[in-house]
Amino acid sequence: MMFRQTFLPVAVLAAIGLSSAAAAATLDKIKSTGTLTLGYRESSVPFSYLGADQKPVGLSIDLCAAVAEAVKAKLAMPGLKVAMTPVNASNRIPLIQNGTVDLECGSTTNTADRQKQVAFSVATFVSQPSWLTMAASGISDLAGLKGKTVVVTQGSLNYALAQKITKENNLDLVFVQAKDQAESLLMLRTGRAAGWFEDRILQAGLAASAPDPKAFKFLPGQFGGFDYYGLMFAKDDPDFKAVVDGAIRAQMASGAFAKLYEKWFTQPIPPNGQNLSLPMGEALRARVAAPSDALTP
């Protein structure tokens, strides 16, 4: 599928100020404008990131392509245009709320708090957070981070969890925030942070594509429960949710989702041919067998 990329200033888009009621009628909006606008992340490997040709690729991008085909069929608009707009952790929810983006194709965690602002598809991935350090630092466990500066990605839910961890373990951590996952990894690599707290899969994806992938080390331990990723769109829009969920459910039922997972998690991926070597876990297998947007297993 060919996508048309658009880059518009967020301030200008926010000024358009579509009402929540108008934004909720997503299918009507798409039909009237003749365009479905997808939001993508630039460094959320392997879900949504820029490939070798600087065009968005990843598991979530492929799933959104399937949704786009379902929207075309639903509206009987085979010539429907699909536009791509970059989003980040800070603006992804506002851009959904004001109608700039119809569907976010990223790595966003579905939570009860976020459901007050937006809606989510059935789960497309199950993750857990972890601490990543540099192997040469000599830090071997959580206690080794005591008193050090650590980085979290701006807008990440893991910031609150990291603060809870430092309080419960008397770590006295100093927090800095990076604009996206790529900058978080850069801060770790350049010594501006001793550790990075983020969803393990996002860390693994970027570390694997770094010039020195063996230079990183995951700290042992479990630091949180399961996080369920989903495609994100406007809340209170059951018609659009039905189309989105229907497309994903069809992918899961046909076996196409399993093939997409293998493509992005167990085979070489762009831009450098790295292989994450991460077979599908039992928690995600359960969701593929019985698709759901529930927040608990």
TrEMBL record:
<dbReference type="GO" id="GO:0005576">
    <property type="term" value="C:extracellular region"/>
</dbReference>
<dbReference type="Pfam" id="PF00497">
    <property type="entry name" value="SBP_bac_3"/>
</dbReference>
<feature type="signal peptide">
    <location>
        <begin position="1"/>
        <end position="24"/>
    </location>
</feature>
<dbReference type="GO" id="GO:0030288">
    <property type="term" value="C:outer membrane-bounded periplasmic space"/>
</dbReference>
<keyword id="KW-0813">Transport</keyword>
<keyword id="KW-0732">Signal</keyword>
<protein>
    <submittedName>
        <fullName>L-glutamate-binding protein /L-aspartate-binding protein</fullName>
    </submittedName>
</protein>
<dbReference type="InterPro" id="IPR051455">
    <property type="entry name" value="Bact_solute-bind_prot3"/>
</dbReference>
<feature type="domain" description="Solute-binding protein family 3/N-terminal">
    <location>
        <begin position="35"/>
        <end position="268"/>
    </location>
</feature>
<dbReference type="GO" id="GO:0006865">
    <property type="term" value="P:amino acid transport"/>
</dbReference>
<comment type="similarity">
    <text>Belongs to the bacterial solute-binding protein 3 family.</text>
</comment>
<dbReference type="InterPro" id="IPR001638">
    <property type="entry name" value="Solute-binding_3/MltF_N"/>
</dbReference>
